[in-house]
Amino acid sequence: MKVKTILISQPKPSIENSPYSHLKTKRKVKIDFVPFIHVEGVSAREVRHQKIDLSKFSAIILTSRNAVDHFFRVAEEMRFPIPNALKYFCLSEAVAFYLQKYVVYRKRKIYVGERTFEDLSSQIAKYNEESYLIPSSNVLSPSIPKKLDELGVKWVQGTFYNTVISDLSNLKNVSYDVLVFFSPSGIDSLMSNFPDFKQNGTRIAAYGLTTEKAAKKAGLRIDISAPSPKVSSMSKALDIYIEKANKK
Predict the structure, then answer these.
(1) 180 vs 8, 20, 122, 207, CA distance in Å?
(2) What's the predicted TM-score (pTM) here?
(3) Based on the domain organization, do 138 and 92 belong to the same domain?
(4) How far apart are CA 20 and CA 32, in angstroms?
(5) The domain containing residue 9 runs over which residues?
(6) Could you tell me the sign of the dihedral formed by the alpha carbons of 227, 11, 183, 161, in that order?
(7) How far apart are CA 93 and CA 111, in angstroms?
(8) Is the dihedral of CA 128, 94, 189, 222 positive or negative?
(9) Residue 248: pLDDT band by 50, 70, 90 thresholds?
């Protein structure tokens, strides 16, 4: 079956020349962006109720841009002056680059992983005397606490924002050839909004092992997956799949 329409379960990229823009032009497909989940910030008061004192931490582990935004938001609400000596451990270059929105990059101690938490953990292991805070959503990959415990470092996870299922009722009578997911929460949103969803000929694209597991658990068939040793991005994985599917 040919691919003519794709739904990306995330907000539309803010940059004009995104990989999906190139994919749309190259393959002559329709690509829509609808966030299946959204983020709601947790108040500083609620963070305090988690018994989190920002002054007790010498290092921050940032796994996403949302984590960056909400850490600094809560710090501001608490009127906590961010110490210059604070160490930042960023999951990827994209997260580290985004950190520049709040700090002068060259004047801070920033450590960057390549893509996965396993990559970043090698950096964390070098600084096992630090006290780490993970500002995250209410949904944190279980592999992260497991790895930190294996490293034997002192760490605390704080819920600084919540991942909430979006209302997708406007998609009830709309169908797409490919649905693209980047997190287990996206899969949860699909099944929550459409409990009677039947995949049939719809192709499912999943990014990351945890997303794949969630999709399989929900009884979905995965047709496109990323990343892989040869394909690092979802846009590339879609490109390869569409090339094959549309030749038939």
Answers:
(1) 5, 12, 31, 8
(2) 0.77
(3) yes
(4) 10
(5) 1-36+196-205+240-248
(6) positive
(7) 9
(8) negative
(9) low
Identify whether residues 52 and 147 lie together within a single domain: yes
Angle at 13 between CA 9 and CA 19, to 5 degrees: 95
Nearest one of 9, 32, 47, 205 to 137, comparing CA atoms: 47
Q: Count the Cβ atoms, other than its own, within 10 Å of residue 150.
A: 10
Number of Cβ within a 10 Å radius of residue 168: 17
Place of tokens 């999951």: 91
Dihedral over alpha carbons 203, 209, 211, 214 (to 10 degrees): 100
Length of the chain as a residue count: 248
Q: Which two tokens stand for residue 98?
A: 């985004």
Q: Do 37 and 164 contact (CB within 8 A), yes or no?
A: yes
Q: Contacts by 165-174 with C-beta closer than 8 Å and gap 24+?
A: 165/36, 165/37, 165/189, 165/192, 165/193, 166/34, 166/35, 166/36, 166/37, 166/38, 166/193, 167/193, 168/34, 168/36, 168/193, 168/194, 169/193, 171/7, 171/34
Q: Is 187 left (phi over 0), alpha (psi -120 to 50) or beta?
A: alpha
Of the candidates 226, 200, 168, the residue with the CA atom closest to the CA atom of residue 32: 168
**pLDDT band, residue 168 (cuts 50/70/90):** very high
- Domain shared by 26 and 114, yes or no: no
Choice among 15-19, 53-57, 71-75, 234-238 with the minimum mean pLDDT: 15-19
Same domain, 32 and 44: no
Give the three-class secondary structure for 112.
strand
Q: How far is CA 69 from the centre of its chain?
A: 14
Contact of 13 with 20, CB cutoff 8 Å: yes
